[in-house]
Amino acid sequence: MPETGGVSTPGQPLPDVWFTRDLPVLRAIARLVDEPKHGGAPYLLGSVVPASGLPKAEVIAAAKALASAGYIEPLTNHAGDIVRITAISGEARRLAGLWPTPQGEWDRLVEQLTARAENAPTDVERARWRAFADAAVAVGPDDGALLMSALIGGYVPRAR
């Protein structure tokens, strides 16, 4: 991507900041908010700076972007600057890895089935687990993620 002095070239997409700035800050916030140490008390934005490993200016920019997207609930001062983070959304918990995603749970299921097939104590059990693992692979990750989404969300469609 052509850039000069940190300024993007007109007509070109802006540089991606999700993986380099916003997601690391979201993960730092999620770790802090999820810690039972302070009983879920609001965290000062200044606490996020060392937890993220990013410069303060980048943490401030990321916090503004995360707040505008609804991932975090900020408290602001009279000037409108974010000073504390009071909570994170469910989607933020999924993105940070605190809560499961359907795709991740499907991958874990397939991994477990394969491991059980390889480590089963008898040939009969090994064949059963292998058949289950093969069926899961045949279903595929897209339909598997839909199934896991239903299971994670507590809804399993009834048979017709």
From TrEMBL:
* Superkingdom field: Bacteria
Q: What is the protein's given name?
A: Uncharacterized protein
> Which species is this record about?
Geodermatophilus ruber
